[in-house]
Write a structure and sequence with these properties.
With about 270 residues, the protein is α+β, with helices and mostly antiparallel strands. The protein is built from eight helices and eight strands. The longest helix has about 45 residues. The N and C termini lie far apart (about 165 Å).
Length: about 270
């Protein structure tokens, strides 16, 4: 009997020690404990050493660090009816542990599902060119909408970043043809702009040369100098326009039809 009594006392001591040890909990600096007293919310404790009464109080740990969540690839149709596959990453943290535990069953799963549906809804309202080029604007819109939707859950969405936009091979080839046509258009516009500027400069040069006839002679001599330095066997000598006019005056007025007439011939009119 004495041995049984000692075993009973030892068992009581062990249970008391285990009970006392389970009352003390240690929470890290980035953790908070949501305490429930008989099923009702009591308070938020932590960090450090806290006391939780067994069988009366229950504690749920909440991590306050920024959580990085990968949003799975979503198939969506853009505003211009193009099917794309988009992947993104979400950054958020818990600001209010009470709301994160009481107002939502699983805030991690709920935030992930909300991010997927919001991304499909927002990106579906934009055209493909905007999805490819205006990512900063789309990221800001997604972050604002998600932050407003999760405010009642005690969650703060800090950033949303679109990572990949996958297209079909046919759409990639179409975009390549569009880019090639755009480069060709820009080349033609640049060439036309250069011709316009060159024509303006040539017109200005012609006005200056017309005011100073000596400048034409200097330009003529400069051209001869450039031609003489070339090793080509064919040399073209430019003639002034005035020389052509002088030769035309010497030859007299031109009369069409007189070069084929012979002396004594006559023209018959019917």
């Amino acid at each position: 009997m004495m041995i049984d009594f000692l075993y009973f006392q030892l068992l009581i001591v062990v249970l008391v020690v285990m009970l006392l040890s389970s009352m003390f909990r240690i929470l890290r600096e980035y953790e908070r404990g949501v305490i429930f007293l008989l099923g009702r919310f009591y308070k938020i404790k932590g960090p450090g050493l806290i006391l939780v009464i067994p069988f009366v109080q229950q504690m749920v740990r909440v991590d306050l660090r920024i959580i990085t969540m990968d949003i799975p690839s979503q198939d969506l149709i853009s505003k211009d009816n193009v099917t794309v596959r988009v992947n993104a990453v979400l950054y958020f943290r818990v600001l209010d542990p009470q709301k994160a535990i009481i107002n939502i069953e699983n805030y991690l799963e709920a935030t992930s599902q909300l991010a997927q549906t919001t991304m499909r809804s927002v990106l579906g309202q934009h055209e493909l060119d905007e999805i490819l080029s205006a990512r900063d604007t789309l990221n800001t819109d997604l972050q604002r909408i998600l932050d407003q939707s999760t405010d009642n859950w005690g969650i703060k969405v800090t950033a949303v970043e679109i990572k990949h936009v996958d297209l079909d091979e046919s759409m990639i080839r179409a975009i390549a043809r569009q880019a090639e046509a755009e480069r060709s258009r820009r080349a033609k516009v640049i060439h036309a702009t250069g011709e316009l500027e060159a024509s303006k400069q040539l017109l200005e040069a012609a006005r200056i040369l017309g005011q100073q006839p000596e400048a034409i002679q200097l330009r003529y001599l400069q051209t001869l100098t450039e031609v003489s330095s070339d090793n080509s066997k064919i040399i073209v000598f430019p003639l002034p326009m005035e020389l052509g006019r002088i030769l035309q005056k010497i030859a007299g007025p031109y009369q069409p039809g007189t070069e084929d007439k012979e002396p004594g011939s006559s023209t018959e009119i019917t």
